[in-house]
Amino acid sequence: MINRILRVSGKSTTGSSEDAAPKAAVRLEDVTHEYGSGGSRLRSGTGRTVTALRGISLEVENGEIVGLRGPSGSGKSTILHAVSGLLVPTRGRVELKGTDLAGLSGRNRTRARRRHVGIVFQRFHLLPSLSARANVALPLVQAGVPKPDRRERATALLEQVGLGDRITHLPGELSGGERQRVAIARALVSDPDVLIADEPTGELDTATGADVLELLTDVARDRAVLVASHDDETLAVADRVISLRDGQVIDDGR
Ligand code: ADP
Q1: Interval between CA 38 and ligand 1 midpoint (Å)
Q2: Which of 75, 77, 232, 244 could be disulfide-bonded to 70 (CB atoms 3.0-4.6 Å)?
Q3: Residues 242, 253: contact at Cβ < 8 Å?
Q4: Tell me: the pLDDT tens digits for 168-216?
Q5: Going by CATH, does the domain composed of 16-251 fall within 3.40.50.300?
């Protein structure tokens, strides 16, 4: 049984002054994205534009797990990149906790991502030369948190994801499931309001994948979680599954 993942005291899901009126944690409104359209050189030259998203609108509430289902190329990753602020869509609004990411400078968008969004990747993306604890603590280095506090928070999270006895192990000394738990702990270390996961069980066997999904479900109790997958077992943990095709919502799961 996985321990309950506790949120950092003082940062409740509904209590901060900036979100006194409850808002969707994530909100996309009529989002269209064309890769390759940013530079006029591409349009006028041989470059082609690819329309990855065509008028996507969706919302994810606090405590809700929303799945994104769709064949390869349907736009799942592009949506996750837009939510994390890694990509600014060609048109439309992407709001995190009520703030339109497109209205922020690049630096403030990065800040918003670090503050509000945790990201879990299919292939874990751990740094191989760093211990599990140092990997988990890494976002706190970027946030300027003092080392003793980083170590304490990373250790506590590793204990909460069931890896209290693996703290000093390198990623290469861990199983796939353990690596993904480290990655989830890292995604949670800044206590984000939103967790996004792109095929989080894609590299794992069924039993290990089920454990990781249980962990994600536990995490979601007081966060918004957006999971992209084409695996039905992964999507089964979602409260609602949005189906995509060719960059459009064909079923919003409501
Ligand atoms: P999914 O995650 O569902 O597989 P993606 O969001 O990765 O879908 O891709 C949606 C569409 O955008 C596809 O046609 C894909 O080829 C295209 N695409 C994705 N990333 C890029 C990119 N960096 N440059 C150009 N086209 C891209």
Answers
A1: 15
A2: 244
A3: yes
A4: 999 999 999 999 999 999 999 999 999 999 999 999 999 999 999 998 8
A5: yes
Atom of ligand 1 nearest to the CA of 79: 6
Residue nearest to atom 12 of ligand 1 (CA): 52
| CA-nearest residue, atom 21 of ligand 1 | 35
pLDDT of 43 > 70? The answer is no
**For the chain, first and last CA: distance in Å?**
31
Ligand 1: centre distance to CA 233 (Å): 24
Query: Domain map of the chain by residue range?
Result: 16-251
Phi/psi at 165 (nearest 5 deg)? Answer: -100, 15
